[in-house]
Amino acid sequence: MATQSSKQPAPDTTRRSERSRRAIYDAALDLVAEVGYPRTTIEGIAARAGVGKQTIYRWWSSKAEVLMEAFLDLSEQAAREAGPEAAYTIPDTGDLAADLKAVLRLTVDQLKDPRFEAPSRALAAEGVVNEQVCRAFVAELLEPSLQLYVDRVRAAQEAGQVRPEIDPRIALELWVSPLAQRWLQHTGPISYDYTDTLVDYALNGIAPRA
User: Fold this and answer.
1) In the chain, alpha helices (H)
2) What is the pTM of this model?
């Protein structure tokens, strides 16, 4: 008489790998917030995540790569939680100043969010001394956001709201760079009033008006 097989189903390695990856993301973000980037190590991330070092090195070559990917994942999660209507885009209402002020206010909210602040500062600071991290930081995190500003300024040019000879890549630095510098160097508070003023100065200039 045939007997019922007692063979157990094979473990789902895909699910296990995803669980480990998620634990590593969380461990990297938590450690950077708690002890700072210099004191965060692969060994520490592995211990916090409950995995072996070899598991991390199988997927990433450095703690910078781990943190970069963890931060990108965090950003994607936040976007999903906020819903498609709150996606990070620059609206085109026909009012360039209002549109820039709206998206910069969202940027202020993110920069002041504890979930984003520590990894953002860590990656930016490491990028100053590590060219590889800097290139990845720019390509993965900064460039997509900067391109949104370029596209919006070009749309304003087509609508006759910005002079045609203006270079959008240079123009966006008038409001993006001061905000980044103030945030990174703690030279002053960042607020809606501050970013609104940056936009007003950038679009209207500071010379006396006729």
Assistant:
1) 13-35, 42-49, 53-59, 63-82, 96-111, 114-129, 131-137, 143-158, 168-171, 173-185, 192-204
2) 0.78
